[in-house]
Design a protein that fits this description.
This protein has helices at residues 3-28, 91-100, 114-128, and strands at 35-39, 44-48, 54-67, 72-75, 109-111, 132-137, 142-152. It is α+β, with helices and mostly antiparallel strands. This is PH domain-containing protein.
Length: 153
């Protein structure tokens, strides 16, 4: 894959993620005030509104985590603390990186700023056809989740 082809792929993937996130927000309130519950062993997430009523559920894959202080991205498949159920689909992302000689898709940890993290998760979403991306922000790192089969609770 040439650099131009790679850049075009990133732009297409990021556009698709933006559209998917907008649709998830409009249809299910994803990203609106409320809370969420992750169940990594079953690779699912539940979203709740501010009154704690169930809003939506989805299957998930943990694409990876981004550390603002370390300016690094760690792929979910490289994180030993994550259960296999939450990362198994990412094998296709790694395989695509090997096939197309894209090192950022095959290295377990990649130097990245936040924009790079969004690009990487967007490529992953494209490869495994996620409906949308959800970023779970934490005090030290942000977990990027790929969501599938989003439905009202």
């Amino acid at each position: 894959m040439t650099d131009d082809e790679h850049d075009q792929w990133i732009e297409r993937a990021r556009d698709a993620v933006r559209r998917g996130m907008a649709k998830a927000q409009q249809k299910f309130g994803i990203g609106a005030p409320g809370r969420y519950e992750l169940d990594l062993p079953t690779a699912t997430i539940r979203f709740f509104d501010p009154e704690d009523h169930p809003r939506a559920t989805a299957r998930l894959q943990v694409a990876g985590s981004w550390s603002p202080t370390g300016e690094s991205w760690m792929w979910g498949w490289a994180n030993d603390s994550l259960p296999a159920a939450a990362t198994q689909a990412l094998a296709a992302v790694r395989e695509r990186g090997e096939r197309d000689a894209v090192p950022s898709l095959t290295a377990g940890v990649v130097a990245s700023d936040e924009g790079d993290a969004w690009s990487l998760v967007s490529l992953a979403a494209d490869v495994i056809q996620a409906e949308c991306v959800y970023r779970a922000a934490g005090p030290k790192s942000h977990l990027f989740l790929l969501l599938f089969d989003l439905r009202k609770s």
